[in-house]
Write a structure and sequence with these properties.
Distance between the termini: 39 Å
Helix content: 40-55%
Structural class: alpha/beta
Order of helices and strands: EEEEEEHEHEHHHEHEHHEHH
Number of strands: 11
Length: 286
C-alpha cells in the first residue's frame, strides 16, 4: 500500500499507563474522567499510529490474496451508497470472537464506505512499545490490556468515519459499549467450529487466551472457544447489527460457512447496518 493509502492518527504513547493524550486536548485518567491538558510537540508526547485508509481502486480490491468478483464488488458499492448518508459519519465497530475475520471484513467495509480503518489491537500494540498482544498479556497481565483497550475505544469514540476492529473481549466491559454505541456496532457471528479450524490452521501463538491449551490444535481451540463463547455470547448480542455466517451460507446455498468470501460477509454486514439505520430512522423517512 502506497503512502496515499495511509492516514495517521495521533494518540499518546502508553508508556505512562495512567494517561491517554490525544489531539483533541483530552487526557483520560484511570478514573475515566476527561480533563484538558496543554499539548506539546515533544516526540515523547505523541506517537503516530498508522491506520489503514483503504483508498484502493475498486477494480483491484483484494483480501487474503483473493480478488473480489465484479458482481460482489458492485453489490458492495451499491450497499455502501445506500447507507452512507444515514451513517452521517458515525464510526462502525466490528465485534466478534477471535478469528472471526473482524480485521479483514472491517477493511473491506471501510474501503466501500470511503472510511478509514483502525485495528484496536494493533493500535494498543504500537502504543505499548510495539509489544504484541500476547506479550502484553505476559508482561503486564490481562487487566492492563483491558484498561488500554478501554482507553483506545474512548479515543476512537471521539473520531468520525472510521471502521474499527475490536478485540474479542472488548464486549465484556459496559463502559466499552458506551463508547461503541456512539457509532454503530456489528457482530460477526461465526460458528465456533469454523473459528477453531481457522485458528488451528495458523497456530495459537498470537492468541494469549488459547496458547496454553493442551491437546491437538483443533480440539484445544474448539474447547476453549466454546467456553469463551458461553461467557461472551450474550455480550456480543448487544451489537446494533448481527451478521450470521450460517445465515449467509444458507442464502447463498453453501454447506460450509467457512467457504464464504470476506466480500460476501462485508456485503451482509453493510446490509445489516442498513437495516439498523432504517429502523432507527423510521424507514429512511427524511
Amino acid at each position: 500500500m502506497d503512502a496515499k493509502a495511509v492516514q495517521t492518527l495521533n494518540l499518546s504513547g502508553f508508556t505512562r499507563p495512567e494517561k491517554l493524550v490525544g489531539r483533541t486536548g483530552l487526557s483520560l485518567s484511570r478514573t475515566g474522567k476527561p480533563e484538558m491538558v496543554r499539548m506539546s510537540r515533544r516526540k515523547n508526547v505523541h506517537m503516530e499510529i498508522a491506520c489503514s485508509y483503504n483508498n484502493i481502486p475498486a477494480s483491484i480490491l483484494e483480501s487474503g490474496g483473493h480478488k473480489f468478483p465484479l458482481e460482489e464488488e458492485l453489490i458492495l458499492k451499491k450497499k455502501s451508497q445506500q447507507i452512507r448518508p444515514y451513517l452521517n459519519g458515525r464510526c462502525i465497530y466490528v465485534v466478534g470472537m477471535m478469528g472471526s475475520g473482524k480485521t479483514t471484513v472491517g477493511k473491506i467495509m471501510s474501503q466501500a464506505l470511503s472510511y478509514s480503518f483502525c485495528d484496536c489491537d494493533t493500535l494498543i500494540e504500537e502504543e505499548v512499545d510495539g509489544n504484541s498482544v500476547a506479550d502484553i498479556f505476559k508482561l503486564y497481565g490481562e487487566s492492563f490490556f483491558r484498561d488500554r483497550e478501554t482507553e483506545a475505544l474512548h479515543k476512537m469514540s471521539l473520531m468520525r468515519k472510521f471502521v474499527i476492529s475490536t478485540g474479542g473481549g472488548a464486549v465484556l466491559r459496559p463502559i466499552n459499549w458506551k463508547y461503541m454505541h456512539k457509532g454503530v456496532s456489528v457482530w460477526l457471528d461465526v460458528p465456533v467450529d469454523a473459528l477453531a479450524k481457522r485458528i488451528a490452521a495458523v497456530g495459537t501463538n498470537s492468541r494469549p487466551l488459547l496458547h496454553d491449551e493442551a491437546g491437538d490444535a483443533y480440539t484445544a481451540a474448539l474447547m476453549r472457544l466454546s467456553s469463551l463463547f458461553e461467557e461472551r455470547g450474550e455480550f456480543y448480542a448487544n451489537a446494533n447489527a448481527r451478521v450470521s455466517l450460517e445465515n449467509i451460507a444458507a442464502k447463498l446455498g453453501r454447506r460450509d460457512a467457512s467457504d464464504l468470501s470476506p466480500t460476501a460477509i462485508a456485503i451482509e454486514a453493510l446490509d445489516q447496518v442498513g437495516n439498523f439505520l432504517k429502523a432507527e430512522d423510521g424507514g429512511y423517512a427524511r
